[in-house]
Amino acid sequence: MSLDSSQVTDLFVIGGGINGCGIARDAAGRGLKVTLAEMNDLASATSSASTKLFHGGLRYLEFFEFRLVREALIERETLLRAMPHISWPMRFVLPYHPDMRFDSETPTSRLLSTVMPWMRGRRPAWLIRLGLFLYDNLGGRKILPGTSSLNLRSAPEGTPLQDKFETAYEYSDCWVEDSRLVVLNARDAEARGAKIMVRTEVLSAKRVNDLWQVTIRDRESGKTEAVWAKMLINAGGPWVGDIIQTKIHVNSREGVRLVRGSHIVTPRLFDHDKCYFFQGEDGRIIFAIPYEQDFTLIGTTDQDHSDPFEAPVCTEAEQDYLCAFASKYFKKPVTRADVVWAYSGVRPLYDDGASSATAATRDYTLKVDAAGGAPVLNVFGGKITTYRRLAESALEKVGEHFPDLAGPWTAGVSLPGGDFPVDGVPKLIRQVLADYPFLTEFWARRLIRAYGTEVWDVLGPAKIHTDLGEEFGATLTEVELLWLMEKEYARTADDVVWRRNKLGLRLNPEQIGRIDDWLAQRLSDTRAYRTV
Predict the structure, then answer these.
(1) If DSSP codes are grouped into helix, strand and coil, which group holds residue 11?
(2) Three-class secondary structure of residue 430 per DSSP
(3) pLDDT tens column, 359-382
(4) Nearest partner of 36 among 209, 187, 241, 206, judged by Cα
(5) Rg (alpha carbons) of the chain, rounded to whole number
């Protein structure tokens, strides 16, 4: 068999979540020929179902995960500079009461119960202050402000909380639009030469001489073809283990632990733009986060999930748990009747043998198998905050098989639409309102937060709102839908209203159905044109 170089890709990436797209972007930017296949939509699984935070992971300090926390804290500000439209600083309020008790099995809790048994599950204020001191200083902050104390009796952050909470600590972390982060990485990878294929299933992969022969199937057309690659990247997320066992058939001692994290969304529960960090008696924590201007996001849970092919659902029991947890802090109880949307995702954590889902490490593990010829890199675990560093670490291992590979480059390089200062969103909103005076404040803010400086490319020369074509509701118009289809790989209404944005919270089923019809017709017309 003879293949010329044009028929062989350097890297074939399986999986269009944040790790797969991050690796594809980094590799393409170093000059490698990259092909990525995602069996569904980009970010259709774990990467659109996170708590949507760039954070170091304050609670991971209790597990002595200092390297992971430090790396994540450093990354917060690196990522903020690269994507100030879809990520922004947020202050977190941690209410404290001296009688709070916790049933926790963290290393810190076990140590505390040994040396201070009289505490009986209480978490002393000095321990929280120590943790926040480490959190402030491990990552070398330059943009984000440090920890401060709040008097909840007088501060507005205390208004929605129960009267027993008199003191709180306030620290910094960051918000991120998780699924948009994935799409922007894919777009940037494609701009640098990568081939991005959505709704393309990998049926099998086998080593032939020193190459991988990857058989793929287009799930829309049914067409099957073979792709040849020098190296395989298994970034299948929850399916990483299944890919190892049933697709590529390699031996691996590493395993993945699937942990389901569920969230609920309610109408807005408080009037400020800060997030609450609540500690539970069971040793877990949840966040209550301002969401999509008019809502509050509450999560997350940690439950083992046995089957990656079983769609994760936020169960009634998990909804009750989150409502009860939040109600121990808020004056007005949160009930199931308040829930307007719930979602759940499966975290593919590296199986380190931890006793519980909560204790399982959030760190990542990268393993290369080259025993049978062409190498494969299997990606286990990881968290959204460290996706760029994970990609760099993956390319270090890839570089062992591509000796002339260029060095790291992604730190400080903005994603599409992110080429403006971290504090530049208000200025952009004013500018877009001046250039398109028919926009409302909500509309302008939504567009800037989604597209950044590319808003002008999306809206084009429009002078009045009817220049934007058909209106689908909640400020979504035909020109934006066309952008999402042509530039951002959207194929269905779910792609649009739950992953490219969250307008599903504001649209009714008839409006969403109309979006589906429009996309289906436009895609049909496009395919017909291509066959002529």
Answers:
(1) strand
(2) helix
(3) 566 678 999 999 888 999 999 988
(4) 187
(5) 24
